[in-house]
Amino acid sequence: MRGMQAVTLTVHGVLVPIEPSEVSPVIWEALVSGSYEAKEARWIAKCVQPDDRVLELGSGVGIVTALIARVDNVHVWAFEANPLTAALARRVLNANQIENVSLSQGVLTAGAAQELKFYIRSDLWMSSMDEQQGPYLRVIELASQDIDAFIARHDINVLVMDIEGAERDLLSKAELPGVERIFLELHDHLYGLDGIRDITRALVSKGFGYDPRGSSGPCVLFSRDDKPRVYQEEAEWA
Predict the structure, then answer these.
(1) In sequence order, which residues have a C-beta less than 8 Å from that of residue 141 and are 6 or more positions away?
(2) Average pLDDT, the chain
(3) Transmembrane stretches, by residue range (predicted)?
(4) Beta-carbon neighbour count of residue 233 at 10 Å?
(5) pLDDT per residue over 176-232, tens digit each?
C-alpha cells in the first residue's frame, strides 16, 4: 500500500487528498472504508448550530473540522498538536475551499503556559501527551496556551474535542467561560470509569449536563441549559 500515488478520497462528503504512505495502514483502511471518525461525523450536527464560534481541540486530518465549518455562519478555531497531521488538515481544508477555519499546530491547556511533551505514534489517532499509551515514533515539545484566555478572547461558545485522554485533566481544571455546549470523545480505555466520573463531576460543577440528544457511545454532548434547540440537520429537513 505504501508508495502508491496520491489520491483524493471522499470521506463523509469531505474531499481528502492524501498519499497512502502519509498514514498508517489502519488509518488508510478507515479512510477508504468511511469508518474514520464516522460517529463524530454523524453526531457533530447535534452540537454545532448556525452562528456558533467553535473551538476544536484535536482536529486530526480535518474531516470533522470541515463538517463543522459547513454549518451556516460558523467560525472555527482548530488545534492539532501533531505537525504532520496538522499539515494534512490544512490540505483537506484547502481542497474543500474552506475559509472560515483558523487552524493552529499546538495545544491548549488550563492555566499558565507550559512546555509539554507530545508522543507521535504511527496511528495518528493514538498520538498524545501520554507516554504510557503505547510505543511511539518520536517526541516533540510544545508550548501550551491557556484555554480559558483563548475562549474569552475569541468569544467561543462551543467546544469540540478529541484529545486522546487529555480531556480528563483539561475539563477538570478549565473554567470554560461562555461555553454553552461541549462535544467530546471519551477515552475510557485510558482512564476507566473513574475518569468518566471525574469529567462528569467537573462539568456538572460548571453547570453542564449530559445531553442524550447529541450523544452516542463515547461521543457525548454536554450542554448548559435545556432550552429548545434547532440543530443544523433539523433546519435542513424543514
Answers:
(1) 115, 116, 117, 118
(2) 91
(3) none
(4) 10
(5) 999 999 999 999 999 999 999 999 999 999 999 999 989 999 999 999 977 765 554
Pairing of strands 53-57, 158-161: parallel
Rounded Cα gap, residues 120 and 93, in angstroms: 22
**Any bridge partners for residue 76, and if so which?**
54, 101
Residue 85 class from Cβ within 10 Å (0-12 exposed, 13-18 middle, 19+ buried)? buried
> For 104-130, how does the pLDDT look when each residue is reduced to its tens digit (9 = 90+)?
999 999 999 999 999 999 887 788 888
pLDDT at position 229 is 58
Cα–Cα distance for residue pair 13/200, rounded to 1 Å: 33
CA-angle at 108, arms to 102 and 112, nearest 5°: 130
SS3 111: coil
How far apart CA 177 and CA 190 sit, in angstroms, is 27
Q: Which of 134, 148, 183, 145 is nearest to 163 (CA)?
A: 183
Q: Which helix (H) or strand (E) holds 233?
A: helix 232-237
Q: What domains lie within the chain, and their CATH numbers?
A: 37-109+144-237 (3.40.50.150)
Which pLDDT score, from 0 to 100, does residue 76 have?
98
| Arithmetic mean of pLDDT, 131-153 | 94
Cα three-residue angle 220-222-225, rounded to 5 degrees: 150
